[in-house]
Amino acid sequence: MVAIRDQLSSDLGGETVILHLGAGVYYGLDEVGARVWALLQRPRRVGDLCRELLSEYDVSVERCERAVLDLLAELSNAGLIEAADEPAP
Q: In whole angstroms, how far apart are CA 31 and each of 37, 47, 74, 85?
């Protein structure tokens, strides 16, 4: 997965605000969501996202995977991410 090009985002004290340029809609992410968004600036596999978050936050594998999948579904439904051909190494 990777963030679409048709967006602008900005860090606001640990949270992130995203403007979908095509839709003209703003979205907000909390601290953890903002970290996922930062990681999605380059193509990533879901498992790689979870491994990175597990190394940074004290959370169970199951809870992390569930939260990441839920967030990715929301970002996908909003048109803010897309499938990437080749995830970053």
A: 10, 20, 16, 27
Residues 23 and 40: their CA atoms lie apart, in Å, by: 20
Nearest to 37 by CA among 83, 85, 80, 84: 80
Per-residue pLDDT of the chain (89 residues; tens, 9 = 90+): 999 999 999 999 889 999 999 999 999 999 999 999 999 999 999 999 999 999 999 999 999 999 999 999 999 999 999 998 765 55
Range of the domain at 25: 2-82
Q: What is the pTM of this model?
A: 0.90
Provide the domain count of the chain. Answer: 1
Query: Which CATH number goes with the domain that contains 58?
Result: 1.10.10
Which residue bears the tokens 């569930």? Answer: 66
Look at residue 89 and tell me if it is in a domain.
no
